[in-house]
Every structure is written in C-alpha cells, then in structure tokens.
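> example.struct
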C-alpha cells in the first residue's frame, strides 16, 4: 500500500516528528543516483526540471522500501511501498498521467517536441527511450537481496527463540519434578510427547553450554 512520505499537494502518512529523517534518507538516495526507473525533462542548463522515478531506500525505521516520486518546479509528491510491483505500476501510471496532462511545445517548423528528455515507460514519447523491463530486472535483484537479508534475520531470530523455549521447558520440568511435564503441556496447549522432545533438546543444549564453560575455564 502506498504511503505518502513527502508532498506539497497532500498530507503525509508518516509521523510528522520523523519527516526530516525521511527527507534526509530520500535525499541521500537521490545523491547516490539510486533511481532504477526514471523519466525526466531538462531545463536550459541541463538540470532535471521535472523528474519522476522509482528508487530503493531504507527508511528511518530500518525498513527497505521503494519510493516513487513526482518532482516538478512547483510541486512534489513522494510515496513509498514495500511492494516493488506496486511501485513500478504507480510510477508508470504517474508518468503516463503527467504526459497526458502536459502542454505540448513545438520547434521552429511547427513539429511537436517530445515532452521528456528521457523515459523508460513504454508508449511515452521522449528524446531518449530506454527498456523499462530491463531496468525492472535490476530492481528485482535488489528486492531479492533484501528478501534474503530479511530471511536471514528471521531465521536467526527463530533459532534463538527455539533454543530459549527448549531451555525454558527443560528447566521448568526439571524444577517441578514428577508431573511438571503434564502441567506444562496443559499450560501451553501442546501434547506431552512434544513437550518432552523440546525439553530433551533443552537439556542437551544446557549440557553443551556447561561443557563449553568448563573448557573455557581450564
């Protein structure tokens, strides 16, 4: 779902206390020229006067997201999403909308000039036209890298949670003695055999830790 993070034409969807941090994160990505899709027109000195793009960035909360922006001489609208396909679709829609709403200009011979200096959106006129599908491939590589990074963090967290449960089960049952396993099984709504397996793994883990502590103390 698109989230407005910076705009001169509508309200934002983020905490206003973080607005400056979001702006800094976006400006940093722009400074690195991180755009993976873009359409723009240049002014007389070669600066981008009207710029639409899709760009990866990490927001102030540490989340990898895709920002889509429409930045012109007098207005700007920056929105982001964690869904790359949504970002690409929004970008192409924005470019086509901006193209349809632009006033045409003509050369000395009365020939209509392209609105954009560069684009990668199919069917949009520009002086330089690039393959948007190929640029999407670059974006999908970044997205896959992010997904692997998030998976690795989740896997590490899962392993830590698993071991904590194993040890906690073992300690509780060993402390309670006879009947502790049944009490715990009822409390956590897990069958007794499963509780026993979890606790057995916890005891093995505790033994390994104890053995490691003894070796380190030698």
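> example.seq
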């Amino acid at each position: 779902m698109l989230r407005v993070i910076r705009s001169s034409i509508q309200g934002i969807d983020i905490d206003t206390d973080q607005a400056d941090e979001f702006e800094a994160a976006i400006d940093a990505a722009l400074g690195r020229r991180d755009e993976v899709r873009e359409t723009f027109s240049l002014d007389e000195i070669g600066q981008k006067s009207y710029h639409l793009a899709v760009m990866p960035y990490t927001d102030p909360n540490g989340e990898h997201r895709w920002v889509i922006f429409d930045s012109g001489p007098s207005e700007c609208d920056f929105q982001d999403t964690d869904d790359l396909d949504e970002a690409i679709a929004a970008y192409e829609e924005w470019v086509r909308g901006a193209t349809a709403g632009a006033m045409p200009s003509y050369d000395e011979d009365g020939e209509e000039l392209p609105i954009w200096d560069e684009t990668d959106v199919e069917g949009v006129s520009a002086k330089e036209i690039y393959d948007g599908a190929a640029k999407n491939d670059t974006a999908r590589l970044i997205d896959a890298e992010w997904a692997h990074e998030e998976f690795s963090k989740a896997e590490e967290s899962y392993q830590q949670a698993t071991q904590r449960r194993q040890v906690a089960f073992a300690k509780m049952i060993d402390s309670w003695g006879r009947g502790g396993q049944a009490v715990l099984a009822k409390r956590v709504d897990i069958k007794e055999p499963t509780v026993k397996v979890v606790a057995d793994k916890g005891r093995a883990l505790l033994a390994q830790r104890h053995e490691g502590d003894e070796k380190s103390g030698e």
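> remarks
Residues 105 and 111 are 8 Å apart (CA to CA).
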